[in-house]
Write a structure and sequence with these properties.
Helices cover 52% and strands 12% of the residues. It is built from six helices and three strands. It has a three-stranded antiparallel sheet, sandwiched between helices. α5 (71-82) packs across α6 (86-97). It is globular.
Length: 114
Amino acid sequence: MKPYVEEYHNEENLKQAVDLLKSKGVQADDLYVLTHDNDRTERISDKADTNLISTEDKGLTETLENLFVNKGDELRKNLEEMGFSTAESEMYEEKLDQGKALLIVKNPEQYQLI
């Protein structure tokens, strides 16, 4: 099933949403943050105690391929690997271009988020 996603401009609001989801039983292993900037993604993820889309999530081959593509292509691929369609990935990548941060919940059906 496709992940659940919310968009944020404000990092503190994203952290509050993570805290709320965790209080409702969402496991930290299913929470991911993604932004257009790797440093910002890591900073938010550390602050909110979420996951980053890593080599384990993407696979080694894709990680190596991402070394040779532009940032937009890399973000769209990351989103597709998380379970979003190509059209959804393009839409969310545009949101990232606008400075938004995405909070992604894998296995949302387990938590009755959808």
